[in-house]
């Protein structure tokens, strides 16, 4: 379903993704793990047509994200790591917008929006502007939106960041059902190792732009002679804390606030 | 088609929810209209040119449209910074349709803003020879609005953040406004200025609007429309080209 071969992405001199290769089969739940700044999001962005690779071959649902971007875009849904909602619209309006862009037929769209908003427990607040939502509520809405069009592949970039255990479990059970019933391929990244251990069929660990290990959670534990995926992860990537630079986005948020008032 | 509609609808909703902005962007055109309109009125009259306030009003309406259009176009930078642009870009929507949807949304907003300026101008004494001309006038305003929203969106899609905003204000919007004949007649200009005004797309918009409202155009009305439509097409095409190039 997803095929990556000798993929490299450079930003000027900085190599964010360094010659990685892997495959994800249809119906698989695949975890993509790594410390901050390891190249996870960059890889996901390349798979989802937002960035062009410097070198290498990519296939998503059999199509090339660079040259056949429309076919690729039709095949997946994504929950981004950072916010991507329109704050000035209501929850329902955000969902509607998404449903229309993905050609979900009117009747089905209405049904699913209601069902998903109930599922993430936002139905009572469906007509409130998103800017009035708390962080957790926004996160839940993003997840609901990403699931709206029932894609063949779902990309989840740290989807459970900032969610309480209840919501996290709730969300994963929905995604597993989707995986079972519709044979949806799931590709996700997370910092919660026990989460990856529990739901993923296979795991890839990326560090400094290179894949350092790939296999089932059991295989990784065996190879590193550790008892949990977290220990295996630390054994493979070391204990050093990584630097990550704050982007312009945060500065802009501050600026915009000043600008609007 | 439906996708274009939903992109359009989103912008209209956002506009109607930001009431302070609607009022705020009326202030500048109003200032120009009153200070210059009344200030230069008598000089203009003595030069034998007639009613300056009436001459100026279409220029100031165009100014309101120009500013709103370019700003709503450039708003795409906010979408980029707040992540919503990603949501649009990963969707299976052709880049040309994204460009069209956004442009029509912004153009509708800018036209509404132009209509508001026009209504205010009426209150202060702007008058038409034939009031039925309001309808073709609004169409003309929409044409101007579409052109400059397309330009703004195109510029916005090339910028990463608002750092370049001052640059756009001083090197794009202001020259377009001041060199368009919004404030002065196009007849009898020095050679250089005359050439520059011909290169400014707003010249044709203002002139067309004056022609429709007052029947005193410098160029032919159909020339004006043809040039405006042509440039709009060019910007739309260029804009969707730049959209394809966006990487986040």
Description:
- The model of chain A has no long low-confidence stretch (mean pLDDT 87).
- Chain A has 261 residues and is an alpha/beta fold.
- Chain A has one domain (2-260): Rossmann fold (3-Layer(aba) Sandwich).
- Helix content of chain A is 41%, strand content 22%.
- In chain A, the strands form two sheets. Chain A has a six-stranded mixed sheet, sandwiched between helices.
- In chain A, strand 1 (2-11) and strand 2 (14-24) form a beta hairpin.
- Chain B has 248 residues and is mostly helical.
- Chain B contains twelve helices and no strands.
- Chain B has helices at residues 2-17, 19-39, 41-46, 52-74, 76-81, 84-89, 95-123, 134-158, 165-178, 191-199, 201-214, 221-245.
- Chain B is globular, with a radius of gyration of 18 Å.
- The two termini of chain B are 26 Å apart.
- At the A-B interface, helix 2, helix 3 and helix 10 of A face helix 1 and helix 6 of B.
